[in-house]
């Protein structure tokens, strides 16, 4: 059994129920120290109140994403044609494999573009005043013996046009 905490052991002293803090006057062997408070990290849901400006901002961001994907498609097509031409001139046997890779990359980007277009439609159907989940953030919470476990995680932050308007403890 290791020596009790204190100067002799090199371990920090800890005072428990008026104990000496490990100076040797008490018996630490078999002692149990109970913690009644613990600090944990927990997720907090962030919701946004739908407003015209939120819809406009979100649609603008999604449109920017579409433009980026379209630019990637153009670059892919341009570089792909050039590289494919070089491979064919050299008589490379992997030309068909390269063509398949190009088509797969283009298909990924087309799928991304379709998803972004669908999200624009969804955002356009949002009703002003309703709340939508924007994501989560981590928060610190003290948990005590006797706390209801569901209450530990039952917190939401409500944001309207970039301003926190409410913190709910559900």
Describe this structure in words.
The structure is a single chain. This protein has helices at 52-90, 95-124, 149-153, and strands spanning 37-49, 131-144, 155-160, 163-169. The chain is built from three helices and four strands, in the order βααβαββ. A four-stranded mixed beta sheet has the order 2-1-3-4. A hairpin with a 2-residue loop joins strand 3 (155-160) and strand 4 (163-169). It has three domains: 1-34, no CATH class; 36-50 and 127-170, no CATH class; 53-126. By secondary structure, the chain is of the alpha+beta class. Helices cover 44% and strands 24% of the residues. Helix 1 packs antiparallel against helix 2 (95-124).
Mass-distribution shape: elongated
Give the oligomeric state.
single chain
Mean pLDDT, as a whole number? 85
Order of helices and strands: EHHEHEE
Question: In percent, how helical is the residue content?
Answer: 40-55%
The tally of domains stands at 3
Tell me the radius of gyration: 30 Å
Distance between the termini: 47 Å
Tell me the number of helical segments per DSSP (H or I, 4 or more residues long).
Answer: 3
Strand share of the residues?
Answer: 15-25%
Beta strand count: 4
The side-by-side strand order for the widest beta sheet comes to: 2-1-3-4
**Structure class:** alpha+beta
Low-confidence stretches: 11-18
Largest sheet properties: 4 strands, mixed
């Amino acid at each position: 059994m290791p020596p009790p905490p204190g100067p002799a052991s090199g371990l920090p002293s800890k005072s428990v129920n008026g104990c000496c803090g490990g100076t040797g006057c008490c018996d630490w062997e078999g002692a149990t120290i109970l913690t009644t408070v613990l600090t944990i990290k927990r997720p907090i849901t962030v919701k946004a109140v739908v407003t015209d400006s939120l819809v406009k901002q979100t649609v603008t961001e999604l449109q920017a994403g579409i433009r980026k994907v379209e630019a990637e498609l153009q670059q892919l097509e341009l570089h792909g044609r050039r590289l494919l031409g070089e491979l064919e001139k050299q008589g490379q046997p992997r030309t068909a494999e390269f063509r398949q890779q190009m088509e797969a990359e283009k298909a990924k980007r087309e799928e991304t573009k379709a998803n972004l277009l669908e999200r624009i439609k969804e955002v356009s159907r949002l009703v002003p005043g309703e709340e939508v989940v924007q994501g989560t953030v981590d928060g610190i919470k003290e948990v005590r013996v006797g706390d209801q476990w569901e209450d530990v995680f039952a917190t939401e932050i409500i944001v309207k046009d970039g301003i926190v308007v409410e913190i709910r403890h559900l």
